């Protein structure tokens, strides 16, 4: 059964008006999937806020204390990009638990997905780019600490490099970070993933998919992973306001299909976190994200 993390607080971040539009997807996406029959209510589970020990496997205690108590410096809050509030921290902690629980569901069913997550700009000691905590890093460390995985592969196909994830695992040989991202997109300063493929502005479906199709078998041979986290941001679309790539909706769907079929072919449990998506038409964002869920259902079940 495809298990999907979603909680009401995903949509209640008390953000200023200029940040609310992209947040609508967290409400509309599950509604669309339920309406069309891709999933039923039993596919959804509601995570609770994550326990502190899981956070502290990844994030510095001093940083967490500042987040929890609302004492982050103004400059640190500006880097996050959201006004800090207890509700926002609660929301982030719930998303973290969603991805962690998805890891266990993926071990059981082959795949699991978080309607939110993909908070790959969060470092061990700070937040950036609308990310307070790093859900992929927290879930990966959970699997490793519990002996549920020995070699984790992060496939990050968001338009933005997963700089926080790359930094967190820079010296951890149990986690391999792979990122295909816009060379000229945020962040201006890129970290060093284990393998980065920086992409030129405007790259289209054919060239993008060719690069990905070539990279996946190399990743399997090089890494020999036993678990995959997939950051499936749809800000790779040509229509995206914050991206500089040129993929069509069909190209984005084919991207997801390549990754998910590759995981299925090699018997690799995979957790997908949705990541970014900022096209002007909300219907484009929902359709692109919904394709990821449709493909997971069709390929694994």
UniProtKB/TrEMBL annotation:
The protein's name in its UniProt record: Histone deacetylase
Family the UniProt entry places it in: Belongs to the histone deacetylase family.
Domain (Histone deacetylase) ranges: 24-289
InterPro entries, per the entry: HDAC_classIV, HDACs, His_deacetylse_dom, His_deacetylse_dom_sf, Ureohydrolase_dom_sf
Keyword terms, alphabetized: Hydrolase
Superkingdom of the source species: Bacteria
Coiled coil, from the record: none
């Amino acid at each position: 059964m495809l298990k999907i993390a979603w909680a009401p607080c995903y949509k209640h971040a008390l953000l200023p008006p200029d940040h609310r539009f992209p947040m609508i997807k967290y409400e509309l996406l599950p509604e669309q999937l339920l309406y069309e029959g891709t999933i039923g209510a039993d596919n959804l589970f509601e995570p609770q806020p994550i326990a502190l020990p899981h956070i502290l496997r990844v994030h510095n205690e001093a940083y967490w204390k500042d987040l929890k108590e609302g004492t982050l410096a103004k400059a640190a809050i500006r880097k996050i990009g959201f006004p800090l509030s207890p509700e926002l921290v609660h929301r982030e902690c719930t998303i973290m638990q969603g991805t962690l629980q998805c890891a266990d569901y993926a071990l059981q069913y082959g795949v699991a997905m978080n309607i939110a997550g993909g908070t790959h700009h969060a470092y061990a000691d700070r937040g950036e780019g609308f990310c307070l905590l790093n859900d992929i890093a927290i879930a990966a460390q959970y699997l490793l600490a519990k002996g549920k995985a020995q070699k984790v592969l992060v496939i990050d196909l968001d338009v933005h490099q997963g700089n926080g994830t790359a930094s967190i695992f820079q010296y951890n040989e149990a986690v391999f970070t792979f990122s295909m991202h816009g060379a000229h997109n945020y962040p201006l300063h890129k970290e060093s993933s284990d393998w980065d493929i920086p992409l030129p502005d405007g790259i289209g479906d054919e060239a993008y998919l060719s690069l990905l199709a070539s990279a996946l078998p190399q990743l399997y041979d090089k890494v020999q992973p036993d678990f995959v986290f997939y950051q499936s941001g749809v800000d790779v679309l040509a229509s995206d306001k914050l991206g500089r790539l040129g993929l069509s909706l069909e190209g984005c769907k084919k991207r997801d299909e390549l990754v998910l079929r590759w995981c299925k072919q090699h018997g690799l449990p995979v957790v997908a976190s949705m990541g970014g998506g900022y096209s002007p038409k909300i219907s484009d964002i929902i359709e692109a994200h919904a394709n990821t869920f449709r493909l997971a259902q069709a390929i694994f079940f």
